[in-house]
Amino acid sequence: MTNENSGADTFPKLLLHHAEQRGDRPAIREKSRGIWRTVSWRELADEAAALAAAVAERGMQRGAHVALLGDNRPRLYAAMCAAQWLGAIVVPLYQDATADEIASAIQSAKVTHVFAENQEQVDKLLRILPLCPTVQCIVYDKDRGMRHYKQKELVGYDALLQRGRELVAARRDFLQAEAARGTGQDTAFVFFTSGTTGPAKGVVLTHASLIDRARVAAARGELTDADVAMAYLPPGWIGQNLFGYVQPMVAGYCICCPESSDTMLADMREMGPTYLLATPSVLEALLKQVSLRMEETGGFNQRLYRNCMALARRVTAQKLAGKAVSMGDRLLSFAADLVMLGPLRDVLGMSKVRVAYTAGDAIDPDLLMFFRALGINLKQLYGSTETGFFVAMQPDGAIKPGTVGPPVEGVELKVTPQREILVRSPGLFKEYHGDSEKTARAKGTEGWFHTGDAGVLGEDGQLRIIDRMAYVGAFNDGTLFSPKVIENKLKFLPYIKEAVVLGNGRDRVCALIDIEMAAAGRWADRQNIAYTGHADLASRDEVYALLADCIAGVNAQLASEPSLAPSQIHRFAILNKELSADDGALTRTGKLRRDVIAERYRALVDAMYDGRADARFETMGDEATSAEVKIRDAKVVAPAPARRAA
To answer: In this structure, are 419 and 482 located in the same domain?
Structure first.
C-alpha cells in the first residue's frame, strides 16, 4: 500500500481522493436477484454528494447522530459517506436487533436520522418512534410493502436521491466546504458494544483513530486497490466496519455484498475474495459443513480426505515450528493439494484468499490449524471496539497457535499482576458516549485502557489471551479455571453448536451443551432414529451417548496437558432449545451471556452438581413452560504423567 492518501484525515476526504485517483475502479459490488452490480468510486462519491445535499435539506447537521439499520448494502454505505460528509456521526446497529434494543441505542445517541433497509426494519422503528422523539427522518431503501405507509418521517431512498441530484449543482460550494471542514479529530462513529458482561456502551471513535489503525493493518497485510473483501458480517460490529468501510477507504480496494446468508458460499466463489475477516463462529460453521459433507460421502473419498488433512496438519505444524519438510512430504503435499485441498478451498470460496484474519473471540488452536492446513493464510488478530480493533496481529513467518501475535505498530501493551491486558494506542476510543465517569474509569489517569481481558505476554513478544477477566475463576481448591479454552474444544466438534462450561467455585467441571441441529439431525437419520424436533432429538439417549464419546475425546486432550487436566468435564446436559440472541442468552455477535444463562438454568446446574440424573426447570419464551432435561456423567481420563527433567 502506498502513502498516496496520507494527507486525507477524514473518510469524506478519502472518498474524494479515490474518486479522483481511481474513479472507474470498483468500490462496491452487490449481488441482487442473481446479478452482480458494480458501483465505482466515482459513482459512490457522486451518490454520497447527492444524498448529503438532500439530507442537509432535511435537517441533518454537523455533530448529529445518524443510525444505519440493515444488512450490508451499497446504499447503506453511501448513506454512511453522506452523513460523515456533513460532519454527522454514524451509529451502525445490528440488523437482527429487537425493537427494544434499537430504541435503547437511538435514545442513548439521540439519533435524528435513520437509514433503514426494508419494511421489516421500518416496522421496528415505527413501533418505537413514540419513545424516540429525536428521530426526524427515516429513509427506507427497498420499497416493497411500503406503498401504504404515510408517516411524515418516512421518505424513500430513491426519492431522496433524486431530490439530492436536483440540489447538488447549486450546493456544490456548500458540499466542498463541508468536506474540507472536517478534521481527523471529529467523531466518526459510535459503536454499541455487544454487552457480553453488562449493558451495551456507546464507544466514540474519531476519524483519525480509525484511519491510523487501518493504515497500520493495511501496511501489515500489504493491501492494495486490487484486493477484494467481503461485507457479510453484522454491520453493527466494528470488525465489519473496519474491513468493509474503513480499510477500503484507506487502501481503495473493493468490497462485495452477497445476496443473502443462504447464498453466501456460492456468492463467495463468484467474488473470489483475496482479503477475508471471519469470526471463530463462522469458521466453525464452515468446518462443520466440510466435515458433514465428507462424512456423508463415506468410503474412498472420506479416507482420502482424512489422510490428506492428516498429512497437511503434520506438514503445517513442521513449517510453523521452523522444521524442514522432507522431499517425500512435499511431493505428497503437492498431490494432496491437487486432488483434495485445492478443490475444498474452491468449494469454500477461498481459492484466491491471500490473507485472512479471525477476530471477535478466542479461536481454538485446532480450528486455526485446520484452515492453515487447508492452505488458507489464516491468522489471529486481537482488539476491541475501544482500541480501534487492531492491537495485536500474527505476522507471516511467526504464527503460533494459541497466541494472537505481537502488538502492532504504535501500540503500547502491558499486563497487570492480575493478568489484565492494558492498552495505549493511537486507535483508542475518545469516550463512552454520555458517560464521563465510565470513560475515566476505563482509561485511568495515564491513558491505559483496561480491556477486561486476561492474558500473558510471552518472552517472544507474542500475546496469549486467556479469557475475559470476569470469567477466569478457580475451583474450590484454588486451581485456576478458564471456561473459554474448554468451550472452544467442544465447539470444534461437529455435533456441538454452543457449550457453556461451569466450574468456578466448584470442585469439578460440568457443561451445558447446545447441539448443532443440522449435524445431529443427519447423524440421527443415518442411525434410523425418528424424532419430532430439536427438544425431542436433544433428549434421546442415543444422542447423549454420541456426545459422551465426543466429550471423552475432549477430556483426553485436556488430560494430556497438565495445566488443563483438572478442567476435564465430569457431567453434562443437553439443552432442550437453542441458545439465541433473541432470548438474551447470546449477544448479537454470538458471545455467551453467562450471567443470563446461569440464572436461566440454575435448577439444571444445581442438579448436575448434586449428582441427580435429571432436572425439571421453567423455560422462558412466549409462554413459560416446564421442561425436564437428562444429566449424564462423562468419562474422565487419568492425567498424563509429568515429564521428568533430563
So the answer is: no
* Final residue before a domain boundary, out of 428, 453, 468: 468
pLDDT on residue 292: 84
- The residue range of the domain holding 176 is 11-205
Do 511 and 498 form a contact (C-beta atoms < 8 A)? Answer: no
CA distance 246 to 14: 10
Q: Which residues lie below 8 Å from residue 158, measured CB to CB, with a gap of 6+?
A: 143
CA dihedral 440, 441, 447, 448 (to 10 degrees): -170
Kindly state whether residue 264 falls inside one of the protein's structural domains. Answer: no
| Residue 644: DSSP 8-state | P
pLDDT in tens, 214-259: 999 999 889 999 999 999 999 999 999 999 999 999 999 999 999 9
Q: Are residues 383 and 521 in the same domain?
A: no
Among residues 384, 385, 360, 72, the alpha carbon closest in space to that of 205 is found at: 385
Residue reference for cell 478519502: 14
The C-alpha cell at 388 is 480501534
- End-to-end alpha-carbon separation of the chain, Å? 50
Same domain for 593 and 554: yes
pLDDT at 617: 75
210 in a structural domain: no
Q: Which of 468, 491, 506 is the last residue of a domain?
A: 468
| Separation between Cα atoms, residue 303 and residue 301, nearest integer Å | 5
Q: Which residues of the chain have pLDDT under 50?
A: 1-2, 621-623, 645-646
Domain shared by 508 and 601, yes or no = yes
Characterize the bridge pairing of strands 496-502 and 509-515: antiparallel
Kindly state whether residue 235 falls inside one of the protein's structural domains. Answer: no
Alpha helices by DSSP H, listed for 129-271, are: 157-167, 172-181, 207-220, 238-241, 247-251, 264-271
> Rg of the chain's alpha carbons, rounded to an integer?
25
Nearest Cα to Cα of residue 102 among 89, 118, 116: 116
pLDDT at 445: 84
Q: Please tell me whether residues 427 and 522 are part of one structural domain.
A: no
Residue type, 235: P
Burial of 450 (C-beta count, 10 Å sphere; 0-12/13-18/19+): middle
422 and 503 fall within a common domain: no
Strand partners, 203: 191, 432
How far, in Å, CA of 55 to CA of 162, rounded? Answer: 12
**CATH classification at residue 62:** 3.40.50.12780
Written as one letter, the residue type at 205 is L
Q: Based on the fold, state whether residues 446 and 492 are members of the same structural domain.
A: no
Quick one: 289 and 316 in the same domain?
Answer: yes
Q: Angle between the 11-21 and 41-57 helix axes, to the nearest 10 degrees?
A: 140
- Indicate whether 1 belongs to any domain: no
CB atoms within 10 A of CB 200: 18
Identify each DSSP E strand in 100-235 by its residue range: 111-116, 137-140, 154-156, 187-192, 202-206, 228-230
Total structural domains within the chain:
3
CATH code at position 575: 3.30.300.30
- pLDDT attached to residue 620: 54
- Check residue 645 and give its pLDDT: 47
* pLDDT 10s digits, 292-317: 888 888 788 899 999 999 999 999 99
Structural element, H or E, at residue 481: strand 480-481
617, 603 Cβ separation under 8 angstroms: yes
Number of H-type helices and E-type strands within the chain: 23, 27
- DSSP states along 338-389: IIIIHHHHHHTT-TT-SEEEE-SS---HHHHHHHHHTT--EEEEE--GGGTS
Instruction: Identify the pLDDT of residue 221.
Output: 87
